[in-house]
Amino acid sequence: MRTTNIMIVGVGGQGTLLASRILGSVAIRAGYDVKVSEVHGMSQRGGSVITYVKYGSEVYSPIIDRGEADIILAFEQLEGYRALPWLKKGGKMIVNTQKIDPMPVITGAMKYPGGIIEELSAKADVTALDALRLAQEAGSIRTVNVVLIGVMAKNTAIPYEVWLETVRETVPKNYLEMNLKAFDLGYHFA
What we know:
The chain has helices at residues 16-29, 77-83, 103-106, 116-123, 131-138, 144-154, 160-170, 176-189; strands at residues 4-11, 33-39, 48-56, 69-74, 87-96, 125-129. It is α/β, with parallel strands linked by helices. Strands 2-3-1-4-5-6 form a six-stranded mixed β-sheet, sandwiched between helices. Strand 4, helix 2 (77-83) and strand 5 (87-96) form a beta-alpha-beta unit. Helix 1 runs parallel beside helix 6 and helix 6 (144-154) crosses helix 8 (176-189). The two termini are 24 Å apart.
């Protein structure tokens, strides 16, 4: 099996690292070799967080170069825009329409750019969704990450049951029911 390259991008505190743990565990459970690399920018201060997840029959390095990502899972619009050069031709981008102001916008030095989803859609195969609204429907805005994992899961060949069982084993028990609902909302959105 060829290697599948997935890049997860977001802002510190959005749950990108839990999402990468779920994805890595799913791929292992499905019988693949998996490599994960996390790049933490200024994640403690709301900065960019990037995770590379690669799986296949044999994976030697977790790093994804520009133009190699099969899927980019963007937890925030601007982070998705920044990651676009890593998407390969014919790749898929899943973007949460949520906007989180970076520090230059917060300080008033810049404005948050408009038209990001439209620009991304003109350049790539994009599924854009209000994952924050679906997370609220699931019971907590903290489940945005699992909503997005659900959307991505539908775009892989790994069976639904493998994803569901991994979510059950990875998410803390006191948050399990809302995360299972979040996963289903994302999966069925796709």
